[in-house]
Amino acid sequence: MNRMKTPTLGMTALLLAACGGAPATFDEATSETIGTGSPPIDDDIASLVEPDRLVGIGISGTTDEVLAWTAANTVSGGNATNFAWTRSPNRFTTAPNHSAAQIVANAVATDGTVHTWYGDGTYTTGDSNHLAFQGPQAFGIPGGRTPLNIVGIAIAKPSDLVYAWYDDGQVSVGDAWDLGSRTGPHRMWPTERAYAPAAGRTPADVIDMAIEVARVNRVVAWYRDGYASEGTFEDLDAHRGPFHYTRHGVLKGVYPETPPSLPSGPPSAAPPWSSAPPVSMLDISAGDQDNGVAAGHNFFAVALNDSVRFYTRDGTSLMTADLDAMFEPFKRSSPNGATPRPLDVNHYIGFDTPCDDPSYPTTNAYRYCVSGGAYDTRVEYDKIGRRFVIVAQIRNPLWTNIFSANPRQNISPAEPYVSGYAYPNPPDGAPKTMNAGANGGLARRLKVVAVSRAEDPALGFHTYVFVQNNYRDWPWMSINGDWLVLANRGPEQINGPVATLMSLAELRDGVERPQFVHYKRQELEGAIVAGPARHHGTPQSLLLGVDDDATWRVFALTHPTLPYDKVPAGSTVLPVPGRDVTNERAVYRDGFLHVVAHFPRTGMGGFFEIDYFRIPVTMNGNVPVLSVRYPGFRSASYSDPTQARSYEEPGMQVNSTGDVLLLYGAASGGVVAAQDQVFRVLWPANASAPSSPVVWRSGQIDVSSHGDVIHALHFATDPVDPTAFWAIHKVRNAAGSWRTFVGTYKP
Fold first, then answer.
1. Mind listing the pLDDT tens digit for each residue in 540-581?
2. How far apart are alpha carbons 18 and 24 in whole angstroms?
3. Degrees (nearest 5) of the Cα angle 203, 206, 211?
4. Helices (H) and strands (E) in the chain, counts
5. Which residues are CB-contacts of 135 (< 8 A; sequence separation ≥ 6)?
6. pLDDT at 644
């Protein structure tokens, strides 16, 4: 059955002949300059004039990985519904004197060789990152056609026959150097054959085709409207009708759905900085465990577990951003996919069957679909763009025990498991989780990012979600100039990204496909967890990573100067005591890396001490060079066994004059029932020793609750007065309830 419509290639006459040499042509319909050998541009399809439009798609002959190449010289790897599921975008090279924009099609042979055909009538062979180990050389096209008539090319495995589809609705079979060599009398096909795209689409809508390996002769076609189909050589949707795909690894949304208009005018038209004195101390009455604070020029933000509260600088409540609502378009919001939406991540994140398939056990929300609320929320302020940046995670209701933190250690035994079942409506106290079993690989944890469209959060947010699974907790972030650094302190899945650089410049502008580069443990000397240093300058972002032998390293992540150009991370072992460490924080400023952490106390299981290190750093290319550490600070002397204090959860920040502010908590226990305290320690710039610890806030606690009393102490510097600090900290009262305080401190 042929459902083909007449191709809408009215611009073809304006394009160059196959062998090039003619000058570029200006097309009045699109206001685009069409260069030598460029593929045809359909003036109805906006994506075609984007510099990162897709130019070729192929399926690996060895792994069944779907590879996708763009005109921005990027290649990524994944599956038919997600081009970046297994490999995030990175740069590739083309043949000499050929640009990625001239690519007509790509295809992958049985042995993994990548064939690339260009609009000037030549083709090359190489691999996914280097397309031209051999060539370019000319190729033949049947029927007097030109390369600009090619819709897509695919290679069948294991025969390595090359199939080519054309804009006149015909398909041929041949070789890479002669696309019609197997057609005609007494050859494979008696003539070329007619083909039909998916219903409602024309050949002009097709980006490229590929032939599956696992299911022989199944052809997958991808269309410019974000859908794909699966069928035969002649009927492109014979086996599966149009289904969603995502090309980049990140989906973009906006919150609210129709945000207010932004003020017009140059940056100087932005609101002036607030002259109001900042709040000295504010009880925000929040019970969440993991909190953060970010101070802006006119507002400040407090991150709670599933929301972010905004205040004016004097402490007046402004608004609360509900993250469930903010990231709702990315999640499944109805059973059985009753209202499927293009931004629903469940289309793209690799379920064996649809996430709401009845074969999956019933859970507390839509079977295995990602539908739960945001958690582990962090907030920072972008001083350059005058915007707030939010990072959190979303997930499906499935916990797993098949990933391990490192090759010798199972996931934390504290993870709750229920053998064989998940509760649709669990009784009080029962976990809403299930044992991994055969479906453990379907647990999904996805990172979400939101950037305010202006400093005023009431003007809305650009929202993003990574459609790549990374089963890790404790996300963290840092802002360094025009780059956002993301990492996770959770070690649960060692094969996911450890750290990510993301273009904050593009996030500010709400770019649909912002640049990002992932770093995995194999690229970070085996580090399985990492924390980005909070930065005050430098063209690299420093990252503190720890491997499974508790070795600390400082990594330098170079900011890409070309799109998606991932520079290998340089690293140096951090010269600190070789002890297990948790909850470290790092700040880079004016040539020093400042590190604070709590260490297990020797001989006192379950108790911690706070250590601070100040380390001079210089750069040798992309390798950080660390000098001998300065004498640091230790939280207390432990000679008196009656003072059985555990010092926990340190925070730290450095102001513009070099003053270092440390914040940490102490929980009493053992012999004496005393207080839960938050300590503030100032180490003035150029001083040889810190001041004495000062109790900032304290509250009585029940000694039976010891051990879970201080959480996520967090600092920020003030963008209006960079010598001042903002901090958030919390204590627990006698009834076991949390009290959370936000305040400022100026040395």
1. 899 888 876 778 889 999 999 888 888 999 999 887 665 555
2. 13
3. 110
4. 2, 51
5. 95, 122, 123, 124, 125
6. 59
- Non-local (6+) Cβ contacts of 645 within 8 A are 607, 636, 666, 667, 668, 669
Residues 6+ positions from 603 with CB-CB distance below 8 Å: none
What are the C-alpha distances in Å from 603 to residues 582, 606, 608? 17, 9, 11
Cross-strand pairs, 487: 476, 499
Q: Are 364 and 97 in contact (CB under 8 A)?
A: no
CB neighbours (10 Å) of residue 653? Answer: 23
Residue 309 pairs with which residues in a beta bridge? 302, 320
CA distance 17 to 483: 42
Give the three-state DSSP class for 234. coil
CA–CA distance, 220 with 524 (Å, rounded to integer): 36
Q: What is the pLDDT of residues 47-102, one digit of tens each?
A: 334 667 899 999 998 788 999 999 989 999 999 999 999 888 999 999 999 999 99
Q: Which of 338-347, 524-533, 613-622 has the lowest mean pLDDT?
A: 338-347
CA distances from 268 to 1, 63, 265 (A): 61, 53, 8
Using CA atoms, how far apart are residues 716 and 332, in angstroms rounded to an integer? 35
CA atoms within 13 A on the CB side of 215: 8
The single-letter DSSP state of residue 24 is: P
For position 736, what pLDDT does the model report?
61
Q: Name the least confident of 94-108, 503-517, 677-691.
A: 677-691
**Strand, helix or coil for residue 667:** strand
Q: Is the peptide bond before 424 cis (omega within 30 degrees of 0)?
A: no
DSSP states of 381-430? EETTTTEEEEEEEEE-S---SS-EEETTEESPTTS---TT---SSPPTT-
- Over 323-374, what HEC string results? HHHHCHHHCCCCHHHCCCCCCCHHHCCCCCCCCCCCCCCCCCCCCCCCCCCC
Cα 58 from Cα 263, distance rounded (Å) = 45
- Tell me: pLDDT of 603 over 80: no
At 712 the pLDDT is 56
Output b/e per residue, 681-710; b: 16+ Cβ within 10 A: bbbeeeeeebeebeebbebebeeeebeebb
Q: Which helix (H) or strand (E) holds 270?
A: none
- Give me the residues paired with residue 404 across strands: 410
Coil, strand, or helix at residue 679? Answer: strand
Q: How far apart are CA 691 and CA 682, in angstroms?
A: 6
pLDDT reading at 704 higher than 50? no
CB 394 within 8 A of CB 464: no
Q: What is the rounded CA–CA span in Å between residue 648 and residue 124?
A: 59
Pairing assessment for the beta strands 82-91 and 74-79 based on DSSP bridges:
antiparallel
Q: What percent of the chain has pLDDT over 90?
A: 45
Query: Could you tell me the two tokens for 444?
Result: 């999904």
> For residue 510, what are the contacts with CB-CB under 8 A and spacing of at least 6?
252, 254, 451, 453, 462
Of 717 and 547, more confident = 717
Q: Which helix (H) or strand (E) holds 505?
A: helix 504-508
Please report how many Cα atoms fall inside a 13 Å half-sphere around the Cα of residue 230, on the Cβ side: 14
Residue 716, H or E segment: strand 714-717
